[in-house]
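## retry 2 of 3
previous attempt timed out at serialization; input unchanged, resubmitting
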Amino acid sequence: MRFHTYTKFNPQLADAVDLQALLDQLADFLLQSGFAGGSEGYWGDPGDEPDRSVGGLQEAILQALIESGQLTPDILKALRGEGDEVSEEKLAQLLDGLVQRLVEDGFLSMESTGQVPTGHQPVTGKGSLSQAAARDVQFNLTGKGIDFLGFKTLRHLLGSLGKSSIGNHDTPQLATGVESDAWSKPYEFGDSLNLDVPATLANALARTGSLDVPIDLDYGDLMVRQSEYRSSCATVLMLDTSHSMILYGEDRFTPAKKVALALTHLIRTQFPGDTIRVVLFHDSAEEIPIETLAMAQVGPYHTNTAEGLKLARRLLLAQKKDMRQIIMITDGKPSALTMPDGQVYKNSMGLDGHVIGETLREVAACRKSGIMINTFMLARDRALVEFVKRVSEISRGKAYFTNTMSLGQFVLMDFLKKKTSRVR
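## retry succeeded, writing output
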């Protein structure tokens, strides 16, 4: 007779953790901006670089578990100990398992930058080979991870706004379409044949005075239902990466990145006809793919607003959209300008008349091209306020003086409530 021995099922500790809730808690760590600066002078400190190693990720995961209360009684019981090797091993297994789950579910990817160890090192414990390996492996957010963080950020921001109606951009114009929102009109060549049958039959009856079948229909009898014309919009999000964005102990760039991710998710899921591009501006300006936004950093730069506007205008004019807009998030005055010979003129002392003049000239060029500029300013200096107001007057856009806590709400409110009085 064959006997079987049954043991109690012991699931992996990492399986008991809500992975999506954990990733949401890790958003600030995963999107941390840091400073892509040098190691000398006031420009930065090597310690300002964000820790993108697996070891740093594991520390952030442990902190997130503690703060979110996801350390279940079973996990606490398994981890409880006096710092002995058994409890340390269980903790390491938990953190390794969570990192592995994040990779297997497609939220993170790993890249090894390991170096050959020198001298004698223990296998486990502080200063061990395993700890060194965790530091040598770098993690990156995948497209799925960025999309998820954008979705979660969007939910948080819209939740704080209350109920929001999300749909296409409304305009006062009417068009023929499947959804009927207004009265019917006579059919014209090119209209969608969304036929208003009662009105068409009424026209035929009035013309012929007969109800004989088959009904005699003429081209002029045809009536089609109208729907509200809904426009498409091309957006360029301009993000300031000058040094001031992380000065004075406040990281202003990470909230700006969150807004970019949320806006991208909103546009892709609710406004499929719209487009969004991201431009970083500093001493110069460049477009970056949204997939690389999580790794973007502030650097030892001035603020070349004119160059950013010039690039944004070029990107928008290349797109055939009814509406074009620039959303500019910054915290400082223009302090740099690209000269005709390619050299960058810089002056961080006050409002330089030449820099301001060229920047406003680029603002006027945007208006002439039918591009609206909405500025979200993270500072309230008196001279800066006047400059931003001038930008809004020229571009017929809006100026919002906000902070990192309310930035996302202002940006989304402006985007969702945007209406146009005339479609060019």
